[in-house]
Amino acid sequence: MKFLRYFLIIATLFTFHKGYSQANPYRDSVVQLYGVVMTADSLKGIPAASVIVEGRGRGTISNGDGVFSIAVLKGDHILFSSIGYKDKTIHIPADLPGNQYSVIQLLISDTTYLPATILKPRPTREQFERDFVNIPVQDDLYETVRKNNNEAQRRALLNSLPADGREAVNYQLRQQANKAYYAGQVPPMNILNPAAWLDFIQAWKRGDFKKKN
């Protein structure tokens, strides 16, 4: 009975492995894709060019000289893109011998022609000031400006909007630096710090500790 049970388990695993291999023929065919992204006209490296593996949610960007390196699978489609250039897609051969694939990818400039705009200055400063003051402004714009300049509105936006990437990274770096600075010792308490008390009083006067509905 034990032998039969083990035989059934091994047969099931073998069948599952075989079916998975047929559904994913390139799952173990890892290829190191590397190369350089360059302009087609001047052959200069394109920095920060996106190298995306389509359908897999993975990618990388080129360095300052246009050089990149990423692990892909045989049969993948790789999309190269950069602002100001036309996108280009390449295919990693499914029958590629070895596990390395190099490419020099040239991107063509994507030119967009905008309609011409002619700027004419006012003849005199007095005429400019007169026209600037007399420009009609809609009431809705006035109301929008009032809301944006309201201190309570700005404070609410500051508390509700999430931090961007730079703010988050700066906060994390400050936390790490503070932790490393006081490593092996007790950090000072701000209860006796006059500057901390001043910040607390100012925040209390601004109403930062009031309950927000």
TrEMBL record:
- Which Pfam families does the entry mention? CarbopepD_reg_2
Protein name, as recorded: CarboxypepD_reg-like domain-containing protein
Q: So which domain of life are we looking at?
A: Bacteria
* Cleaved signal peptide residues: 1-23
- Family matches, as InterPro entries: CarboxyPept-like_regulatory
**Keywords assigned:** Signal
Q: What is the lineage of its organism?
A: Bacteria, Pseudomonadati, Bacteroidota, Chitinophagia, Chitinophagales
| Organism from which the protein derives | Hydrobacter penzbergensis
